[in-house]
From TrEMBL:
<dbReference type="InterPro" id="IPR001078">
    <property type="entry name" value="2-oxoacid_DH_actylTfrase"/>
</dbReference>
<keyword id="KW-0808">Transferase</keyword>
<dbReference type="GO" id="GO:0008811">
    <property type="term" value="F:chloramphenicol O-acetyltransferase activity"/>
</dbReference>
<dbReference type="GO" id="GO:0005737">
    <property type="term" value="C:cytoplasm"/>
</dbReference>
<dbReference type="InterPro" id="IPR023213">
    <property type="entry name" value="CAT-like_dom_sf"/>
</dbReference>
<keyword id="KW-0012">Acyltransferase</keyword>
<dbReference type="InterPro" id="IPR001707">
    <property type="entry name" value="Cmp_AcTrfase"/>
</dbReference>
<protein>
    <submittedName>
        <fullName>2-oxo acid dehydrogenase subunit E2</fullName>
    </submittedName>
</protein>
<feature type="domain" description="2-oxoacid dehydrogenase acyltransferase catalytic">
    <location>
        <begin position="5"/>
        <end position="214"/>
    </location>
</feature>
<dbReference type="Pfam" id="PF00198">
    <property type="entry name" value="2-oxoacid_dh"/>
</dbReference>
<dbReference type="GO" id="GO:0031405">
    <property type="term" value="F:lipoic acid binding"/>
</dbReference>
<dbReference type="InterPro" id="IPR050743">
    <property type="entry name" value="2-oxoacid_DH_E2_comp"/>
</dbReference>
Amino acid sequence: MSEKRLSALGKSMGRQMIKSWEAPQFTHFSVINCENMIAYHKKLPVKVSYTTILIKAVADTIAEFPIMNASWDDGTKIILHENIHMGVAVDTKRGLLVPVIKDADKKSLEEIHQAMEEIKKKSVKGNFSMEDLSGGTFVVSNLGMFHIHAFTAIVNAPNGAIISVGRMEDVPIIKDGKIVAGKTMQIALNMDHRVIDGATGAKFLTALAERLETLDA
């Protein structure tokens, strides 16, 4: 038997996970037809990642549903944040970290792409600052680059919600009354029920799905 000592970061993550798991969480699922998203991605002048497209779509949809950008405050109040600071779950040399793209809804797709490129560089070196990791109000976790069909992620307390994205998959779909080959991906929206109710979460996820399915370059 061997042991692995936890780093200071590991201990901090453990405490944060316990705090996060204490929240009463529930999940909504949606299946996204990726046809327009793929066509949109191909037409872009700058080749961004699908995660970048997702972040932009999520941020723009949150702007329509302010409660999705809220956080729980120890039973006394719910804080409605004015700024949408998007956390992005990434695997780094130091383990799982959530760097933050500030004011994501006010950024263009290219600006979010540049922020993601900077996150990639820092992920390799593992040299994120506390400023890079602080202030997030919502999180996107994308495992679509792996063989992951679908998953749910724990809400990062005190945030009210987190989006989890699985891989694009080849599936038969109905189009104009005929069965054709298509691609879909599953999205899970995990929420803190103290902050967000089921109907609001359903409306938000429906609006996000419609945004992604009607992307047009």
